[in-house]
Amino acid sequence: MAYENILVDQKGAVGIITLNRPNALNALNGALIEELNDALDRFEADPEVGAMVLTGSQKAFAAGADIKEMQPKHYMDVYFEDFISRWERISRCRKPVVAAVAGYALGGGCELAMMCDIILAADTAKFGQPEINLGTFPGSGGTQRLTRAVGKAKAMDMILTARMMDAAEAERVGLVSRVFPADELLDEAVKTAEKIAEKSLPAVMMAKESVNRAFETTLAEGVRFERRLFHSTFALEDQKEGMAAFAEKREPQFKDR
Ligand code: CO8
User: Fold this and answer.
1) Listed residue (124, 132, 135) closest to 165, CA to CA
2) What Gene Ontology molecular-function terms does this entry list (predicted)?
3) Dist. CA 34–CA 123, nearest whole Å
């Protein structure tokens, strides 16, 4: 597939996807989402890739779903095409995805970032769910993921008033894990993804699956799920290598793929 709305690059074991619709502040339209999904499929299938970075421009990670594309749609259009269901592909990635957010992450842009595993932000980042200004409300997990990330008070405040949250507030309330000067953001995101990609890929994937389970189940069931996966890591060559390397005071060489 030829890409017109994203740029794709690979640095060692890190796949990098850059949203690239500069004239629309990276507004997410159907074509962009198909390209993004295709790039994710490729990186997921590539055994050389251990982690991914998703980023945008300095001005916008993404200013939301493309309002001009949505404007003519009626209820039966969105119902029959199950509008937005294909936009959640990234939340089903089994390999980790780091979102590097500079500038606006609004509406679907904020939801897309929240579908990633770690959000790193530039000091210029602005997060918001302004759909209420359009006579609608977040439709791709905003009411659910934002609430889980920052709690009811902040989520209601943002979703009902359309107020934007800056990077400092987003870090304080736990929406983002770290904030960097804008010109260092991408390097830091790639470094973070590289660090993840150096680990055992199956252990990383299981750890991700287990953390995500915390959002889907009770504590007792989640702990049980974690225990089963934890036990299964003892079947990995990487677990043998990791523990042997510790005992021998050397760096581990993880190879399971
Ligand atoms: N859709 C379409 N075009 C957009 C969008 C958008 N969301 N955002 C910006 N653009 C376009 C503008 O129309 C403008 O185009 P043109 O030059 O042709 O007029 C260009 O990008 C530059 O934008 P501005 O001139 O407005 O730039 P400013 O710096 O003045 O303002 C803002 C920046 C504040 C970000 C402003 O553009 C804005 O408010 N944008 C809309 C933000 C918004 O409401 N987002 C929510 C959209 S609804 C949504 O996301 C539903 C989610 C559905 C699920 C998605 C799943 C992942």
Assistant:
1) 124
2) enoyl-CoA hydratase activity
3) 30
The residue length of the chain stands at: 257
Cβ–ligand 1 distance for 131 under 6 Å, the answer yes
Alpha carbon of 244 to ligand 1 centroid (Å): 53
The two tokens of residue 164 are 């934007």
Helix axes 219-232, 201-213, angle to 10 degrees: 170
Cα 210–214–217 angle (5° rounding)? 110
Q: What is the helix (H) or strand (E) element at residue 237, kind and residue range? A: helix 237-247
Q: What is the pTM of this model?
A: 0.97
> Do residues 106 and 84 lie in contact, with contact meaning Cβ atoms separated by under 8 Å?
no
Q: By the 8 A CB rule, do 28 and 56 touch?
A: no
The protein residue whose alpha carbon is closest to atom 53 in ligand 1 is 108
Is residue 104 within 6 Å of ligand 1 at its C-beta? Answer: yes
The interface predicted TM-score of the complex, written ipTM, equals: 0.96
DSSP class of residue 65?
A: B
Please name the residue whose Cα sits nearest to atom 22 of ligand 1.
24
Q: What is the CA angle 146-149-151, rounded to 5? A: 85
Q: State whether the beta carbon of 204 lies less than 6 angstroms from ligand 1.
A: no
Q: Give Cβ neighbours of residue 197 (< 8 Å, ≥ 6 apart).
A: 12, 13, 14, 49, 50, 51
Exposed, middle or buried, 221 (CB in 10 Å: 0-12/13-18/19+)? exposed
**Which of the 8 DSSP states describes residue 94?**
S
pLDDT tens digits for range 65-90: 999 999 999 999 999 999 999 999 99
